[in-house]
Amino acid sequence: MVAATEEIILRYTPSWPFADRDGLYPQWLVDLQTASFTEIETFSFDVMVSYSHEAWVGRVRASAPIAGTLDADGVGACSKELAAMLHECFAEDPLAVPHRVWAVTARAGWGE
Questions:
Q1: pTM: predicted TM-score of the whole model, two decimal places
Q2: Which of 3, 60, 78, 94 has the fewest CB atoms inside 10 Å of its own CB, making it the most exposed?
Q3: DSSP strand E in the chain: where?
Q4: Where are the domains of the chain?
């Protein structure tokens, strides 16, 4: 379901830079190191989050590649297509949607 959702998002926002990602952001570690942060540590864990069809469409609609990029007509069209895909291909409601939580901690290195 996540891959099918991403396909729809990419039809509306083909240049979305976070497509086909694994939920890890190694460039952020380089950015922290470049900014003189030290003791950089990361951790991640996966969780399943329950979404009704309506809530999943709302979450995608509010996301950066949709609400942050498209005009109102584009947002509406994407939401309609997503709702139809969920109804046709993923009838279970609510859906169990995998999420990866990725975190980084660091200590400011300046002023020591």
A1: 0.82
A2: 3
A3: 37-51, 95-108
A4: 2-14+24-108
